[in-house]
Amino acid sequence: MAEQKTVRDVMTRSPRTVDRQDMTDEAARVMAADDVGAVVVVDGETLSGILTDRDIVTRAVAQGFNPSDTLVEEIYSADVITLPPDASIDDAVQIMREAAVRRVPVVEDGRPVGLVSLGDLALARDPDSALADISAAPANR
Description:
elongated, single chain, three-stranded mixed beta sheet, CBS-domain
């Protein structure tokens, strides 16, 4: 029987981070430059939460806030579920399902070391699935 993969095996290592005190437009530029839909929010080196492109749209732009005048800490998700790097893929799937989230920061000693997405898990569990195909496809630019 093959050894079961862990979150460490499939996560994006060293995820892009922004500070809670950064402006939202800077976080959006980081996402655009790296073609990612989420960044990990830190306070110093410690995990503080996660900010997604959807957060920027629904909590800032749609509410009439100017992203260049809005701090990340005003709109990010601070109450975030995390995983340790040694969590199994099955545990990660279960936790994401229960929490109804698409991305989870991977944390070791309070510091973000990775980010795992539904797409990462789909590739690990069933590389021939439609979600895995979409996740592995090059970015649309």
